[in-house]
Write a structure and sequence with these properties.
Elements: E1 17-21, H1 28-40, H2 49-61, E2 70-78, E3 90-97, E4 101-109, H3 118-137, E5 143-148, H4 157-172, E6 176-179, E7 183-185, E8 200-208, H5 218-233, H6 240-245, E9 253-256, H7 257-260
Bound molecules: coenzyme A (COA).
Length: 271
């Protein structure tokens, strides 16, 4: 299947894009999402799709454990094309982490469907789904957080174009950049035996929801960043990745997401 070779539904201008939750890993639309996932994200940015599949399967089999994550895979397609794998426009995957907030892991839009608002729709729907989850638990939803890998100065222009697309999208959905933190995460593309594989530095973005932006002081942001390490990566304080992400004197602060999109030269100048 060549998801991105033709543009069978572009003329519909995606005025009516439908977003729904995937519950069946054998559904051709879910399989199409796995292909889009692998095509649109670099290997060192993604976990094996099998883990995502597993979480979709688990949702259909058992009630979530108390305090357990509530994971969701949402898919998007033009109205009337929800059964056509070639028309899959995009997907988003993430979870509610009770007692913490929302965590958006991955989002991707097919080439032919870009710049039509699909990414924005997926984010908005994801926020709504997590609100429902939090409401069911009787909890507020203070924020949704996500990570993104900024290209290095020598990366090809296409990587920088995609970074611009990402930061514009993040800006559009009300995301703010946590400036001052390089979040060090494990390199999933490395061999499991390879302890020497350098960690991947990620930029963090946050959408304040039930907590106002002004409440995200540097101290609160350090807690949020530390929480991500503990809950998602099982890195506790005193572990190398935790401590290198939050060194003494680290003063994270929120800035508009579009500011993170500015390209820098190797010497750190804006270009
Ligand atoms: C990043 C990505 C998800 C954006 O999806 P999208 O559906 O094209 O985004 P939208 O159409 O909702 O656009 C949102 C905003 O970003 C802007 N934008 C999107 N792509 C852009 C581009 N290439 N250049 C400049 N701005 C862009 C849009 O104009 C829009 O802003 P506006 O409403 O002010 O005009 C998509 O490019 C993609 O899948 N990239 C590859 C996978 C990836 O990088 N995923 C993110 C991992 S963190």
């Amino acid at each position: 299947m060549h998801l991105q070779q033709n543009a069978p539904v572009k003329d519909a201008a995606l005025s009516k894009v439908v977003v729904w939750e995937a519950f069946d890993v054998t559904d051709p639309m879910t399989l199409a999402a796995s292909q889009l996932y692998e095509k649109t994200l670099a290997a060192d940015e993604r976990i094996p799709w099998m883990w995502i599949e597993q979480s979709v399967q688990d949702r259909t089999k058992s009630k979530p454990r108390p305090g357990g994550w509530s994971r969701h895979l949402l898919l998007a397609a033009p109205e009337g094309k929800q059964d056509d794998p070639e028309a899959l426009a995009g997907y988003v995957y993430g979870a509610l982490l009770p007692g913490y907030g929302g965590y958006l892991c991955y989002v991707g839009v097919a080439d032919w469907a870009r710049r039509m608002g699909v990414g924005r729709r997926l984010y908005d729907q994801f926020f709504k789904v997590l609100r429902v989850d939090a409401g069911e638990l009787g909890e507020p939803l203070p924020f949704v957080i996500w990570e993104s890998h900024r290209p290095d100065p020598m990366s090809p222009a296409s990587d920088w174009e995609n970074w611009t697309a990402r930061t514009r999208l993040f800006d559009r959905v009300g995301g703010l950049w946590i400036d001052g933190v390089d979040f060090l995460s494990p390199n999933f593309a490395a061999d499991e035996e390879d302890d020497e594989a350098p960690p991947v530095p990620l930029q963090l973005f946050i959408k304040p929801l039930d907590v106002p932006e002004a409440a995200f002081t540097p101290e609160r942001l350090r807690e949020v960043v530390g929480g991500l390490h503990r809950l998602v990566y099982r890195n506790e304080p005193d572990s190398p990745m935790y401590d290198r992400t939050l060194p003494p004197g680290c003063e994270p602060r929120l800035r508009p997401a579009r500011v993170a999109g500015v390209r820098k030269s190797e010497r750190g100048e804006l270009v």
